[in-house]
Design goal:
This protein has eight helices and eleven strands. It is of the alpha/beta class. Helix 3 packs across helix 5.
Length: 246
């Protein structure tokens, strides 16, 4: 296989227990994610990786391929590594189980960035922020890139800082959408790096990659998402799907 998509789905969540199977207009959230991911053109296979039999049962019911993993994983990346360890695959796409509005083109764009350029070992997605209030929301991660579209930094703070004497009236802020594509080799390289200082400070896994001197290609999308961290976020998703308005 060239490309495999994996949806790591953990039942436990400190802010929203069982959110991956929360109902959204008659379907569990993870089904919305799976159905959208199935539309991606680059994936040769799609797997739900979970640690709870209730989640596994729900996923099997709507037709997903399920792999049970250890409950002891600290993050979704560790869960993915357990699944792909014995698989003959070149590129893995990490698809978040709490992004029910993920667009198939995001998966294809991230995967293509890695497939088409041998120098790219990891890629992710960003979206220009259109709502000013989102810029200061620490739950919305911001990213700044260089002129070749590689990440310079990710932060929960507004970046870039808008200086008072800036020649630019208002900078363009980009939201990071937490979908990742990596080569299999790089995924294991990443796993073997120690948790970094900035990763601990910001609670952002991807900063470990930058601190170790590796590069992350960032692809811009015109499609937005609503990550579900709280019941209030779930209500926003329902509203959007019903009316197109958050």
């Amino acid at each position: 296989m060239d490309v495999i998509g994996i949806i790591p789905a953990r039942y436990s969540s400190s802010r929203f227990e069982g959110k991956v199977i929360a109902d959204i207009l008659g379907k569990p959230m993870i089904q919305h994610v799976w159905e959208r991911a199935k539309q991606a053109l680059t994936l040769d296979d799609l797997i739900v990786a979970c640690d709870n039999e209730l989640v596994a049962s729900v996923a099997r019911h709507f037709g997903a391929k399920v792999v049970m993993t250890s409950k002891g994983h600290a993050c979704g990346t560790d869960r993915i590594i357990e699944v792909i360890n014995e698989l003959d695959v070149k590129v893995i796409v990490n698809i978040q189980a709490d992004e029910p509005l993920i667009h198939p083109s995001m998966i294809d764009s991230a995967a293509r960035a890695v497939i088409d350029d041998k120098k790219v070992t990891m890629a992710t997605i960003m979206k220009a922020i259109e709502e000013p209030e989102v810029v200061n929301d620490p739950n919305v991660v911001k990213v700044v890139i260089d002129k070749h579209n590689f990440a310079l930094y990710f932060s929960r703070s507004p970046i870039p800082y808008h200086a008072v004497n800036s020649q630019i009236k208002l900078p363009v802020y980009f939201k990071h959408i937490g979908l990742y594509a990596y080569t299999k080799d790089f995924l294991f390289t990443y796993k073997n790096q120690p948790i970094s200082y900035l990763e601990r400070v910001e609670c952002l896994e991807q900063l470990r990659v930058l601190e170790e001197g590796f590069r992350i290609k960032v692809i811009e999308t015109k499609h937005d998402t609503i990550g579900v961290d709280t019941p209030e976020d779930l209500d926003k998703v329902k509203s959007y799907l019903e009316t197109g308005i958050v």
